Amino acid sequence: MKLAVFGATGLLGHHAARAIKAAGHQLRLIHRPSSRIERLAYLGAECRAAELFDHAELCRALDGVDGVLFCAGHYPSQPRRWQDEVACALDQSNHFYAACLAAEVPRILYVGAAIALPRHPQGGPGTRGCSTRACHAGAILICCANGPWTSRLASRPAVVYRW
């Protein structure tokens, strides 16, 4: 099986790439042109550069794979409202899934992230302030095989982050 990892130079992506290679699958690493992909040369994987917002480039990078793990994440350089973070994540995901549909990728595994917010000054859940994306153990498996998308949850309990 030929599997791609999008975001292979990141925290989750490089572990996913190692596991795919160890399981004996063909591995394709999809990375930003500016990333330091040479650090993963030891995997002996095929590498293709693609920007998330370049539809044609991303379609070419995804062409011919049997599945892809979406491990790329946006890490803001400045604090902003959590609603803005969610909107950004949805925009990125929509670009990614549109390319997957166009390239007819049959299997997608989204490896998620959580947004951690400081508590509200009065003790309730945080709704404003600096947001930091933190990894969690959950994942959503989305399969598309000659028909409409169906989703199945494949997860473990999420890790709880406290401030």
Rounded to the nearest angstrom, the distance between the terminal CA atoms is 42 Å
What is the strand arrangement across the widest sheet?
3-2-1-4-5-6-7
Major β-sheet annotation:
7 strands, mixed
What helical percentage do the residues reach?
Answer: 25-40%
What integer value in Å does the Rg equal? 17 Å
Q: Kindly state the mean pLDDT as a whole number?
A: 74
Please work out how many helical segments DSSP would assign: 3
Binned strand content: 25-35%
Order of helices and strands: EHEEHEHEEE
Low confidence ranges: 129-163
Give me the count of strands: 7
Description:
The protein is of the alpha/beta class. It has three helices and seven strands, in the order βαββαβαβββ. Strands 3-2-1-4-5-6-7 form a seven-stranded mixed sheet, sandwiched between helices. Helix 1 links the parallel strand 1 (2-6) and strand 2 (26-31). Helix 2 crosses helix 3. It is globular. The N and C termini lie far apart (42 Å).
Briefly summarize what is shown.
This protein has 163 residues and is of the alpha/beta class.
Layout of SSEs?
Layout: E1 2-6, H1 11-22, E2 26-31, E3 46-49, H2 55-62, E4 67-70, H3 82-102, E5 107-116, E6 132-143, E7 150-153
Parallel strand pairs: 1-2, 1-4, 2-3, 4-5
Antiparallel strand pairs: 5-6, 6-7
Helix pairs in contact: 2-3
Task: Give short descriptive properties of this protein.
163 residues; alpha/beta; seven-stranded mixed beta sheet; 3 helices; 7 strands
